[in-house]
Amino acid sequence: MIRSTFLHLPGIGPATETALWARGVLDWEELRALATTGTARPGTATPGLARELEESEASLRAERVDWFARRLPASEAWRLYPAFRRHAAFLDIETTGLSPYEGIVTAVTIHGGGGTRTFVADDDLEELPAYLQRFGLLVTFNGSRFDVPFLEFRFPGLVVPPAHIDLRYLFYRIGYAGGLKRIEQTLGIGDRQGVEGIHGLDAVRLWEAHRRGDAGALDRLVRYNRADTVNLEPLLEFAVAEITRRLLPERRRERAGQGTRPPAPPA
Predict the structure, then answer these.
(1) Which domains are seen in the chain, by residue range?
(2) E-strand spans in 148-258?
(3) How far is CA 232 from CA 120, 180, 228, 260, 267, in A?
(4) Helices 180-187 & 232-247, crossing angle to 10 degrees?
(5) Is 214 helix (H, G, I), strand (E, B) or coil?
(6) pLDDT in tens, 35-64
(7) What is the pTM of this model?
(8) What counts of helices (H) and strands (E) characterise the chain?
């Protein structure tokens, strides 16, 4: 998808990008060919466009997530995932309240980079900021309003990955509203074996039980938090495939190996 993206180029907005796709200009190479003939963008100097395309290729080869994140609208960060999936950190937190001023962070799971790690308050939570800096792409569900503000309050000076995909808004864009578990159930995506029926308020109670000495409470809390986090990955895969299907002409999707529509939700 990233090579079919032109929004990061100066002077190209959504309407121009869509018009280029409609003309059959479906990747950087085809746009570069137009730039050499002076027909890519009427009234716009094409040498600058050619240079921007060269820099785009160089930044992609160097896996510069930050370079694209600075140039793409935040709502289009999802386009980075297919090219930069190994830089993605799927993240979810558990807290004792709905506001960072009234609750504390109890558990945080990061899934990505070939592993899944959970950080727990009163144990290793202080190691979270350094660990998160390994990643260039953050993936959450409602994290822009909840997880990130909580973590920034808990860790002043926290460095958040430069690109952030918030699945709550991505799914709303393709017609799925509601919370994480509702969307999982609708699509039949995700594994909650062993933590079925646990919800946010239960996570608060599990933390309180752990603090009272319940030996199994922390284990259940961690397993619940990890399920919330790991399930974000197949959800993002679904959303990216679905938006790509809606946006790009069939010819480009077939060339990119994305010609198959994602599985339909159950009736």
Answers:
(1) 2-62 (no CATH), 84-235 (3.30.420.10)
(2) 163-166
(3) 20, 9, 7, 21, 22
(4) 70
(5) coil
(6) 776 555 544 445 688 899 999 999 999 999
(7) 0.89
(8) 13, 5
